[in-house]
Amino acid sequence: MSRDAAPTARRSRLGSPLKERFYDRPTEVVSRELLGAILECTTSGGVTRGRIVETEAYVGPDDPACHATAGLTPRTAHLFGPPGVAYVYLIYGMYWCFNAVTRERGHGSAVLVRAVSPVDGIDLMRRRRPKVKRDRDLTNGPGKLCLAMGIVGSMSGASLRSGPVVIRSGESVADRDVVVTPRIGITRAADWPLRYFVRDDLYVSPTPASFSRTAYRP
After folding, report:
1. Reduced to 3 states, what is the DSSP secondary structure of residue 138?
2. What integer pLDDT is reported at residue 45 of this predicted model?
3. How far is CA 27 from CA 39, 66, 113, 148, 150, in A?
4. Cα 35–chain centre separation
5. What 3-state class would DSSP assign to 96?
6. How far apart are CA 104 and CA 133, in angstroms?
7. What is the structure's pLDDT at 8?
8. What is the reported pTM?
9. Percentages helix, strand, coil for the chain, rounded to the nearest 5?
10. SS3 state at 78
11. What does 12-61 look like in DSSP terms, one character per residue?
12. CB 120 within 8 A of CB 138
């Protein structure tokens, strides 16, 4: 079994959990600035951490691809805030997706974390995904990273400062190393350039060949 990416996993001194005011900003800004931050999940099985390398912004009720268009429902309740809580939802009836809620309470916007580069708990990630042959495939997609890190729906609504899912400050990513493309796997507002990822990172999910790619400009 290939463990091609394990030697590149980086351990570093843990940063502090990001403050609520970090999230209480435009979703596009938060989506870009989450690149390089550390996503951490604590479960009974142990602790896993990964550096965020790919995100997508879902900007609220005026975004046709955002769940906020459905209004406040039992499924979307945590999407509407406050900022800095987890919004975890199920897709295809089998995969959890993790989001960080942004902007003011009641707006209904969030950042989908699409990929992380493992930092801690790689052996636990491998045990949770035993059929994966390459380490780079452990966490290079939103459903994959939730499986590997143990993120589940019961964690929705929890503070991202106190856990069980925490986002900590990490190494900043220079603007020149950030690529922007349309979002993946949606049919509404599919051309909106709201996907952000770290250039050349092995853990970024595949980008469709037809997608435009632009350099990030603040």
Report:
1. coil
2. 96
3. 18, 12, 12, 26, 25
4. 9
5. strand
6. 42
7. 43
8. 0.93
9. 20, 30, 50
10. helix
11. -PPPPBPPHHHHSS-HHHHHHHTTT-EEEEEETTEEEEEEEEEEEEE--T
12. no
Q: Do 168 and 52 meet the contact criterion of CB atoms below 8 Å apart? A: no
Q: What are phi and psi of 30, to 5 degrees?
A: -65, -40
CA 52 – CA 118 distance, rounded (Å): 9
**pLDDT of amino acid 93:** 86
Mean pLDDT by 10 residues, the chain (218 residues): 46 84 98 98 98 98 97 96 97 94 98 98 98 96 98 98 97 97 96 97 95 94
Question: Token pair for residue 217?
Answer: 């400009």
Residue 104's closest CA among 123, 84, 128, 127? 84
35: nearest Cα among 206, 202, 200, 172: 172
Q: Where are the beta strands (DSSP E) in the chain?
A: 38-43, 46-58, 86-91, 95-102, 109-120, 165-168, 178-181, 195-198, 214-215
Three-class SS state of 184: coil
Cα–Cα nearest to 40, from 197, 150, 154, 128? 150
Answer for the pair 191, 119: CB distance below 8 angstroms, yes or no: no
